[in-house]
Design a protein that fits this description.
- The chain is mainly beta.
- 11% of the residues lie in helices and 27% in strands.
- It is globular, with a radius of gyration of 18 Å.
Length: 190
């Protein structure tokens, strides 16, 4: 007769894998929900669940969860990549940008020039003369999209990145996603 202990452990492992697969969808995050006393480039929040998704999980269609509204801004990158900015949100001292990368080119796009993430993205407050880099969790993991697969021609990939919020008086900044051209965006009040 089998002991119930190995069966319980196996059931817990299956439940954990299912939970991670559900958390690893390609839908953009609303960013960290923890209030911060002051903006910094390091936040004490858990790593992105999408980075921890099991590699054997069935990938969801990359266009699932795309916003139905038109983008509020667009920018261009190399090899036919178009950056589509859908939403900018300021909450608890953090600015979260929800965007998409659409491949308008004729060949596959490999995000190696981006370091396979949006870690090199930034907000630039020209009036305040400050640059805000993407936030990182306690382990140094970027609170931004990790791009592990190619972006095929005609495909749009969901993106997000979280930054320390500039002062409330700063409502307009230059956003640079990865190595795309900077684009001016408006940051709403909290």
């Amino acid at each position: 007769m089998r002991s119930p202990r190995p069966l319980a452990a196996a059931a817990a492992a299956v439940a954990a894998a299912s939970l991670l697969a559900a958390c690893g969808s390609s839908a953009p995050s609303n960013g960290p929900q923890m209030p911060m006393s002051q903006p910094s480039t390091r936040a004490s929040v858990p790593p992105s669940a999408a980075a921890d998704a099991p590699s054997n999980a069935a990938p969801e269609p990359e266009t699932s969860g795309l916003p139905l509204n038109d983008p509020i801004a667009q920018t261009r990158g190399d090899d036919g990549i178009v950056g589509l900015i859908y939403r900018v949100e300021r909450r608890d001292g953090i600015v979260t940008v929800s965007a998409g990368a659409r491949n308008d080119g004729y060949k596959n796009f490999y995000a190696s020039a981006w370091g396979y993430s949006l870690k090199g993205s930034s907000l630039v407050d020209r009036r305040g003369k400050r640059r805000y880099l993407t936030l990182q969790d306690a382990k140094g993991t970027c609170l931004c999209t990790k791009i592990k697969r190619i972006i095929e021609p005609g495909e749009t990939r969901l993106l997000h990145a979280s930054f320390p919020a500039p002062p409330e008086s700063t409502t307009e900044v230059d956003l640079q996603l990865a190595n795309m051209q900077p684009v001016v965006i408006t940051i709403p009040a909290e």
